[in-house]
Design goal:
Layout (H helix, E strand, L loop, with lengths): L12 H13 L5 E7 L5 H13 E14 L2 E12 L6 E3 L2 E3 L26 E3 L8 E2 L1 H8 L14 E5 L1 H5 L6 E3 L7 H5 L2 H10 L1 H4 L5 H5 L9 H7 L4 E6 L8 E4 L3 E2 L3 E4 L4 H7 L2 H10 L1 E2 L6 E2 L2 H5 L21 H21 L5 E4 L9 E4 L2 H8 L3 H7 L2 H18 L7 H19 L2
Parallel strand pairs: 2-4, 8-12
Antiparallel strand pairs: 1-3, 2-3, 4-5, 6-13, 7-9, 8-9, 10-11, 10-13, 14-15, 16-17
Length: 441
């Protein structure tokens, strides 16, 4: 009998899929059908469906259906499977198909077989996981920044940074800051930053001291996952790209590198407009939807580094392992950069119109200016100026800017600008497989 494995990161429902497949394998039943959230189609959850496909078959499925029970509304997948030697028609979403892939698609392009590309490694990271109430208000941070220097002769600016999470990117920024003692600073060194340390000592240590992970409890003054690899790369950059892990629209946005991104942001450690343009294009959007997963509540797409970025085949010559300066003079790269700069400029002007905002220097040097409304009326207007609302409305100027960017990225691949989404995925999948074969994996 086959031993079925469920990945540690998978949802609980995956164990029932595994148990059902074990029952089929043992001959205790012939077929099984289960309902799960639609996140079964991606990430660690999908590995269970991949195992089922290896020794059996999915013969009927509904990939993405609404499910309303007692007021709770989620999106679900319905999956029916049996033994490998069974025969009969296959049905997906109520239509006859020749095959059903583990991600509950039916095309010949089986995106469950995509490979991570070495040329994309070490460039994108999950943001920082704080693991405690290290975030503070902007007003409190500014008060601490103006305090006299500490006993070590250093300013609190060493351990205070603006902090941004996913909602700050898709909505208006809440203006939060965060205490960050880094990942190498000892408790004794941290204590020399008197006021921030005292705050952490009173609010964070009592909670972290009870953490079941010994390292988290012992190093209570540090963030639980500070991402040193990302921070090391930040010293080489003026800014970096971020996108929310879960978002209705797949948007990328620039952040000043001194801003600390939260773990719900995926961070691409590049500061060139060419990379921004490629990732903000419809070509990459199709890929991220095809290989990514979904948030079961709300059905918003999820973007993760390993599945969406590290598998993505960039245009030839523009891969992340090549410094942008090496191809910046390429006419294809110039076209992408120009379209990306234009898109970003238009969006930022809409989000923060010059006649509605004023830019105020921070209370100490070294940080980006604050963006504040010019008056109360402007504040009311700005509250509605968010990326989510912008893409909900999708005005003509935004559609035109994306159209121009999409055309420049398609041209970089040598493709026409009018390919269907399925054709884009088919070509990207072929590129992924070709490059994976050359790297030996």
């Amino acid at each position: 009998m086959t031993t079925w494995r469920v990945p540690a990161e998978a949802d609980l429902v995956c164990y029932w899929f595994s148990k059902a497949r074990e029952a089929i394998d043992a001959g205790r039943t012939e077929r099984a059908g289960l309902v799960s959230t639609n996140s079964i189609r991606g990430g660690a959850n999908r590995e269970v469906l991949e195992d089922i496909e290896e020794t059996g078959r999915i013969f009927n499925a509904w990939s993405d259906e609404p499910w309303v029970v007692e007021g709770a509304a989620v999106r679900v997948s319905l999956v029916c499977f049996d033994a490998e030697d069974e025969v009969g028609d296959l049905s997906l979403d109520g239509k006859a198909v020749a095959q059903i892939n583990p991600d509950l698609t039916s095309g010949a392009t089986d995106l469950t077989k995509v490979a991570r590309l070495k040329e994309n490694a070490g460039v994108a990271f999950m943001g920082d996981t704080k693991g405690g109430a290290f975030d503070i208000s902007g007003d409190l941070a500014r008060h601490w920044l103006q305090l006299p220097t500490n006993p070590n002769g250093r300013s609190n600016a060493d351990v205070l940074r603006p902090w941004v999470n996913g909602m700050d990117v898709t909505r208006r920024s809440a203006g939060k800051w965060i205490i960050d003692f880094g990942w190498t600073m000892s408790e004794e060194e941290a204590a020399l930053y008197e006021t921030p340390f005292a705050y952490a000592l009173s609010l964070i240590k009592p909670v972290r001291a009870t953490n079941k992970r010994e390292a988290y409890a012992r190093n209570w003054w540090r963030h639980v996952e500070p991402r040193p690899g990302l921070m090391a790369r930040s010293t080489q950059l003026s800014r970096w790209l971020v996108t929310p892990e879960v978002s209705r629209y797949r948007v990328f946005r620039w952040l000043d590198r001194k801003i600390l991104p939260d773990h719900k942001l995926q961070v691409i450690a590049r500061d060139d407009d060419i990379t921004f343009g490629i990732l903000a294009s419809h070509v990459h959007y199709c890929w991220s939807l095809g290989v990514g997963s979904w948030h079961g509540v709300g059905n918003d797409p999820r973007y993760t580094i390993s599945t969406c970025f590290e598998t993505y085949p960039f245009p030839d010559g523009f891969t992340p392992n090549i410094p942008a300066v090496d191809y910046a003079g390429d006419p294809r790269a110039k076209a992408i950069a120009a379209a990306a700069v234009r898109l970003n400029e238009l969006r930022e002007n809409w989000l923060n119109p010059p006649d509605l905002v004023r830019r105020v220097p921070e209370v100490v040097a070294g940080y980006s200016d604050r963006i504040l409304p010019v008056d109360d009326k402007a504040a009311v207007v700005l509250k509605k100026r968010t990326l989510t609302n912008l893409y909900n409305e999708r005005p003509t100027w935004l559609a035109n800017a994306h159209r121009d960017l999409d055309a420049s990225v398609a041209a970089a691949y040598g493709w026409p600008a009018d390919l269907t989404d399925d054709q884009i995925l088919e070509r990207l999948f072929k590129l992924n497989q070709e490059r994976a074969a050359k790297q030996g994996g």
